[in-house]
Specification:
Helix content: 40-55%
Structural class: alpha+beta
Oligomer: single chain
Order of helices and strands: EEEHEEHHHHHHH
Shape: globular
Number of strands: 5
Strand content: 5-15%
Strand order of the largest sheet: 4-3-2-1-5
Number of helices: 8
Length: 194
Amino acid sequence: MKFEQGDRVVAKVSPVAGRQGTVLNVKGSSIVVMLDGNESEMSRTWHLHESDIDLVVMVEAVKLPDEFDATATALGITREAVQQDMAKVFDIRDDAVILDAPGYQSLARVLARAFAQAAHGKGKERHAQDGEPFDSQVMQEGAKRFGVGALLFQAFKKSEESQRLQHDAAIRELLGSIVYLAGAVIAMERAHHA
């Protein structure tokens, strides 16, 4: 299997078997993965062989064909039972989103990397307090006090700073900019529905 930067993966080897993370770098069959968790960034960074990880597939819902019911009845199983089992396999959540459209895989990978940085990387370490959800973090308080422009300025500032940094640091700043823009969307929608 070919892995790319930003892919969500699950480790298959001890001592990290079963832990999920995000691919940071790929060099041949050597994969650098940032595992999810609260430990230091250094202790969550693992160099693994491509055979030591599997791709995590997130799907919105398990769709079964209409013909399934007749076959299932004959076998004595229900649609609900199969969907529950598949949900366990695919790690389905009610609010999962499919980032899959022909020709848009590169965009999906960048958005997944921005998400991983906010939810599991420096964004979580710097801004989430005691498991605070993304839409309750300090950036939303800033938008309430100073308007959405505060978040747009942060996105601009990170984008501008990226132009003076080395490649990896510049990419991290640009991913952070994407996260601030997502925060601005949340703030605008929240204000609109208030």
